[in-house]
Recover the amino acids of this structure.
């Protein structure tokens, strides 16, 4: 199984919206509606932000949203805030009880 | 609120076995609801799923690591463990334990850095 593809970096100004992509294949992202997104601040553990493509865990602001089209998934952060600056990782179920992660995207809030 | 805490040696010699334990509080590893996972992150790099154990004691592993990995559970201590054999410098990483299901992890430990070096 190969890692999912994410852009290495993304940026936006406070208040703007930014979208991070996550490209997989017809065997993972394209086949299953089990894409998750994690936020990781430096030196901290990842935090689940989105699961099953577009569901938000309790406590995650509704500024964070997820979607999927074909073999690609996206995370959109609306109304960017300084505390959103972090690394973001996507993951997808890849069948046979396997999970695959993306390489991560560093989001900068300018 | 569940809490997870990794523990184990921070330094392992090449060719030896890396052993880590995750202690769970505020939840039970014998719960039929959750899967208990190990994920690692080499310094400055992305996340890699290692595998998980679930309620029946069944396990699943990343195919790329499967020949070297064993995950086991100890319900009496509310812990689950990771063993990775024949380690090399490429296994140097922060190792996280986490709770979730088969497709995502909703609670993570703080992580422990394991360095492989002689």
């Amino acid at each position: 199984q190969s890692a999912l593809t994410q852009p290495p970096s993304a940026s936006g100004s406070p208040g703007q919206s930014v979208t991070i992509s996550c490209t997989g294949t017809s065997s993972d992202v394209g086949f299953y509606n089990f894409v998750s997104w994690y936020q990781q601040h430096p030196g901290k553990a990842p935090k689940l932000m989105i699961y099953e493509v577009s569901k938000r865990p309790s406590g995650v602001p509704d500024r964070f949203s997820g979607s999927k089209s074909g073999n690609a998934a996206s995370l959109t952060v609306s109304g960017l805030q300084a505390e959103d600056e972090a690394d973001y990782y996507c993951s997808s179920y890849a069948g046979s009880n396997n999970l695959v992660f993306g390489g991560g995207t560093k989001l900068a809030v300018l | 609120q569940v809490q997870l805490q990794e523990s184990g040696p921070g330094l392992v010699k090449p060719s030896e076995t890396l052993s880590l334990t995750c202690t769970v509080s505020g939840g039970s590893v014998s719960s039929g609801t959750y899967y208990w996972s190990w994920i690692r992150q080499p310094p400055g790099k992305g996340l890699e799923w290692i595998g998980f154990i679930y309620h029946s004691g069944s396990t699943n592993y990343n195919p790329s690591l499967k020949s070297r990995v064993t995950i086991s559970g100890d319900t009496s201590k509310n812990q689950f463990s990771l063993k990775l054999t024949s380690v090399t410098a490429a296994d140097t990483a922060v190792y996280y334990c986490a709770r979730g299901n088969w497709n995502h992890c909703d609670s993570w430990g703080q992580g422990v850095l394991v360095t492989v070096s002689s």
In short: The first strand of chain A starts at residue 9 and ends at 12.
